[in-house]
């Protein structure tokens, strides 16, 4: 890894066709589910643990292959694929779960080295992504039925090297995404990432950025207990060690877009760096409205919903609200129906 710091509905190809990743300089995007929940290992060595995660009504089990769990750096491949697909969806172009990409383009877009050894590491990443199995009740795509469905799948369904040069270097690769992930793209359940995300070398820094982006959104700040942050990060470190790692990251202050501050009570506050709104400038729903929102969308992070609603309110011109609670719950109801 390198160091440092609307649209027309898409046409769908019949099975067997593919989508060519050849769009230039697309905006990096990641799916909401993997930003919200810990699906990737933060370890730098092969991690063969079976991970179990439960939060509110969400349950996830991540099972590794013999090569270990997919890592958060392996996720770069999925981010590249999601970014290419979303650019095509927004442009009304045809898409498919099967993508063909140039390995060199992937490595340049994700700030990786392009040496011969980097191609070997990329192959290892494909194998970990294909071998890691997810079992979860987290849904992606439009909600059409209120019943709970538990699904098992690989992060990618398959991959293959399409062509090599005489020197053996990987040139292009075909990847078939899981249906679970592809539905997230088609329903636009994604968020834009900073390009500097790929400059973060520490796995925990990347995970903290994802959580900050997902939960803070465009509101001024988000606060979380160290205990909850440890759980949501997917870190395997003891709380004492995890707290020290967080303090080191706070001191380094490398996260793009967000700043972390430790507060009394074992609380971490995440603040958007470019926030210009004064405290209290954003409309805030009451605790009763938050509880009603939980009933409307069980399993969803209600504070993430608040951030989405506040962002929507800003984009719509910050119109005067007769009732913040009514406006928020109307937004959540519409969101649950889509």
Polypeptide structure, described:
With 338 residues, the chain is α+β, with helices and mostly antiparallel strands. Helix content is 37%, strand content 20%. The protein has 11 helices and 13 strands. A hairpin with a 2-residue loop joins strand 3 and strand 4 (58-63). Helix 9 (287-296) packs parallel to helix 11.
Taking the alpha carbons of the first and last residues, their distance comes to 38 Å
Which quaternary structure do these chains form? single chain
Largest sheet: 4 strands, mixed
Strand content: 15-25%
Please estimate the helix content.
25-40%
Order of helices and strands: EEHEEHEHHEEEEHEHEHHEEHHH
- The assigned structural class equals alpha+beta
Number of strands: 13
Strand order of the biggest β-sheet: 1-5-9-8
Task: Briefly characterize the structure.
With 338 residues, the chain is an alpha+beta fold. Helices cover 37% and strands 20% of the residues. The N terminus is likely disordered.
List keywords for this structure.
single chain, 338 residues, alpha+beta, four-stranded antiparallel β-sheet, 13 strands, 20% strand, disordered N terminus
Write the layout of secondary structure elements.
Layout: E1 19-20, E2 29-31, H1 32-36, E3 51-55, E4 58-63, H2 75-90, E5 98-102, H3 103-109, H4 116-131, E6 133-136, E7 151-154, E8 156-164, E9 170-177, H5 179-186, E10 190-192, H6 203-216, E11 221-225, H7 226-233, H8 239-252, E12 258-263, E13 267-272, H9 287-296, H10 302-315, H11 324-337
Parallel strand pairs: 1-5
Antiparallel strand pairs: 2-10, 3-4, 4-6, 5-9, 6-7, 8-9, 11-13, 12-13
Helix pairs in contact: 9-11
